[in-house]
## 1
Amino acid sequence: MTDLYGAALAAEDTTMATSGGTFTRDTLAPTAPAGEAYAVGGILPGRKVAEVAHYGELAAAILNMRADMADRAPGGYIGTWIDDGTVYVDAVVILPDLASAGILARTLGERAVFNFVTGESIAAEDAYPCRACIAAAPSGR
């Protein structure tokens, strides 16, 4: 077992225990940015791993996504999540503000943006135009 395969298995464990995770592309270490940060997927075609039946299936999908990203999204991250028993693996970018994340999500046709602070997904249409930003803007704009 290589260190990278062990890291992929650890990423699988994290995903299954917490219903998702975001990992660096290079080392597959979990990442949780400090402060306001949002993840947007869809940078490359994602992978759907229907109900993980065998240990290592998700790890293999994570390693395949890492390989796909090598030339096409080298600075990105790998995001995983579980929705109704189906596991997804996607190439993601992390952005510092909701408006930028919302614009990118809508441009890529993504349905949601992940908020690292709250741990919740925000529907792309609610992220941009950034309703919270509009509400917080000084009147007269």
Note: The first helix runs from residue 3 to 18.
## 2
Amino acid sequence: MEVKEWIWLLGACSSFIAASIALIAALKNFELTKKAQQWNDESQRSQLFLNLRERYLTTRMRISERVYLKDFVIHKSDESWPHIQQYWYNVFDEWYSTTKLNKGKYEDLWDGYFGPATQSSLKYPAMVTVLDSMLAGAVSFGNEKDNFKQTLQQLNASLEEDQRAVNALFGSAPST
């Protein structure tokens, strides 16, 4: 083999080694980018959960305990009425942000946590009376009222019959 051939062979090997190193670096960069995206997604999921949970706790602390009695009848003049409204606005935000935003990327948060938590509120007539009033009134829920209502009706339907609030008709309860 002549010197020119050796030089050409060394150049070809050097190019191959450089290309291999670049490929390995690109693959490693892709792997790290993918992991960073996963960490970011997990962080966003956690932050979303914590933000919604904090709003719930703040609202929940303002609702009188008597609202959770099966025989309690609520009226619009009751001091808990606006707090219960805020609760249902918060439930809407939980539902919408977990099932509609980001193409339902966080739907498991609704299915595994927020939905079942909401379902337990459908057992209390006072909670449902306020919800009924909101659904029958001018509250649009961002033009998602029908979808939101359907979701709540499905949650209500999956409760045992004896656990459902008597007035859980979602749209036909009188405003008292």
Note: Confidence is low (pLDDT under 50) at residues 171-176.
